[in-house]
Amino acid sequence: MNELRIKQAYDIAVERYAELGIDVEQVLEQLQKVEISMHCWQADDVSGFEASGELTGGIQATGNYPGKARNIDELRADILKASSLIPGRQRLNLHEIYGDFGGVFVDRDQVEPKHFESWIEWGLENGMRLDFNTTSFSHPKSGDLSLANPDKAIRDFWIEHSKRCRAIAEYMGVRQGDPCIMNLWVHDGSKDITVNRMLYRELLKDSLDQIFAQPYDNMKDCVESKVFGIGLESYTVGSNDFYIGYGATRNKIVTLDTGHFHPTESVADKLSSLLLFVPEVMLHVSRPVRWDSDHVTIMNDETMDLCKEIVRCNALDRVHIGLDYFDASINRIGAYVIGTRATQKSLLQALLEPLAQLRQYEANGQGFERLALLEESKNMPWNAVWDMFCLRNGVPVGDGFIADIQQYERDVTSKRG
Ligand code: RNT
Ligand code: ZN
């Protein structure tokens, strides 16, 4: 797109927003500071580099689009390619199974910071800070229950794994000079009716208390709930209620995955409640289609409502934004670019909302005026601001990234066996 045209459209947008009392330059500065944590697992359908077993734990990546990353070098190249087409700054969210194991099998209760040394170096070189995740799925000891397993040996195995992951996250945080956000999600649940709901939850609570006993300064713990997993439909040990209670009493960050609630539940609505009782919130922005299907995030009402709530709660510094989807049916680099840009576009619109005026109307009981302005803000020229954001960040404007991804597919991913 023609640069002059982008600038002209931007200037007009700046004027229009100024009429609503919004300083667009200031908004762009705010947006520039927001880091989106890209999930490493879209690049290879949550396979990792540990073994080539099947994906278990009630999650599924469906599709067989060619060109998935097969090793650490390919995965890194793909992430950097995607990142080069996304404005602003990204973090990289790693799962434990993506360690640099050098071709040797390292079991989950043996993992150490050294297995992430090359990732840390890579992150420092490429200006990408790292986040981290324990990995309870796709392992012979995963079964239906890990941290909530009545078998103490199995439970201890996963406790040890989780403790080690926290130590790795701490090490990452120290090395990158910025806290590493470590998420803990376990798949524990039951396919059929259980008559022991309390037992497993007691065990999970006890395991978590052991895992979190050691305090750290350079990593932050998050706990993630969900409704159900495939094959574990009747009961999830780590439900929403469980983790809200846990997070609120233990001062832990609660992770909200937008695919982990009942389909008509508003995840956006949860922020203002949670932020009153837990220190921070981590988001896994996803797109559930009928279930926790992990479709690519798009700029839909759900994503926009979520971003608006972050801004309306004035919580940009207390909400960590990460992505979590894995669509194996389309170009995977494209999936990263679409989802990350969609999240940023949603956030931009949230930052451009004429909140002061809207709140004034609300305080005055002017319901018609509030609704009218909410409607009119939808058609303000936010896209001209987005184009400028892309231009200033030196990334393709509009759909310009499609050609780049097609080129990378021709040159790189299509050649993978
Ligand atoms: C699963 C959770 C979890 C995973 C990743 C791979 O339902 O959303 O966050 O998607 O950890
Ligand atoms: Zn998630």
How do the strands and helices of this protein lay out in sequence?
Elements: H1 3-19, H2 24-33, E1 35-39, H3 72-83, E2 89-95, H4 117-126, E3 130-133, H5 152-176, E4 180-184, E5 189-190, H6 197-211, E6 219-224, E7 235-236, H7 240-250, E8 253-257, H8 270-277, E9 281-285, E10 287-289, E11 291-295, H9 301-312, E12 319-323, H10 332-351, H11 355-363, H12 367-378, H13 382-392, H14 401-411
Parallel strand pairs: 1-2, 1-12, 2-3, 3-4, 4-6, 6-8, 8-9, 9-12
Antiparallel strand pairs: 5-7, 10-11
This protein binds L-rhamnitol and zinc ion (ZN).
The site of zinc ion has 5 residues, from loops.
Structure commentary:
By secondary structure, the chain is of the alpha/beta class. Helix content is 44%, strand content 13%. It is built from 14 helices and twelve strands. The strands form three sheets. The protein has an eight-stranded parallel β-barrel, surrounded by five helices. A two-stranded antiparallel ribbon has the order 5-7. The longest helix has 25 residues, at 152-176. The protein is globular and about 65 Å long. 49% of the residues are buried. The mean pLDDT is 97.
